[in-house]
Amino acid sequence: MSSEVHIEVTHPIATVRLDGPDRHNEMDVEGWRALREAFDELSDRDDVACVALCGTGGPAFSAGSDIGTYADEPETLDDARAYSEAIGSALAAIQGCKAPTVAIIEGICVGGGLDIAASCDLRVCGESSRFGAPINRSGFTMSYDELAPLVRLLGPSPVLELLLGGELIGAERARRAGLVNRVYPDIAVVEQGYGLVARIAAGAPLVNLWHKRFVHRLLDQTPVTQEEREVATAAFATAAFATPASGASS
Prior knowledge:
This protein is an alpha/beta fold and about 250 residues long. About 50% of the residues lie in helices and about 15% in strands. Mean pLDDT is about 85; it is low at about 245-250.
């Protein structure tokens, strides 16, 4: 796995850490591939009940893709396609992770870093965090795969405002827009973020799994089929029998 991505597991919580603090945790193509591998691995593990996704160093969650690579060395169409595929597969792996995912955001979260955060189930940040995708003057564009998690989370107009305006927005504005769930003092965001992760991990794993699946399914505008409703009923019955009622004696 790339040195840009590390996995730490303390049962039942896993942490995926973006590790390039001298570059604001930017990701090259190997870093994106490593991020996909990390979430594919964790999704296959039955001992992981929640995944925290963090940056290293504090000043930045992630500045996204290392676009300096393109500026220094012009890429071929095949190179650009490989980079795009690496990003798309990483974001898909985060969104498809079986366990709930929480982005714990310190500092700036821009470009591809914003895509990574938007691909998680929940996001918390510090008061000084800043968000955006200021690439409209760089000559680069975001692909369909990169835009998809942002559009699903925020809707088209807020995403276009970020892209066309090119400004960075603050934590409270991000919370009001629905980009983050909670804002904490900078000094407390890691502790509070892991507190949320621990509360999620303490829940019934099957219930969390099914709720993720149901919510994601409802993003599809096609009607829920009767077969899918039966699967949901069976999931309810399975979870009800597998989970002791609150307050029940052991």
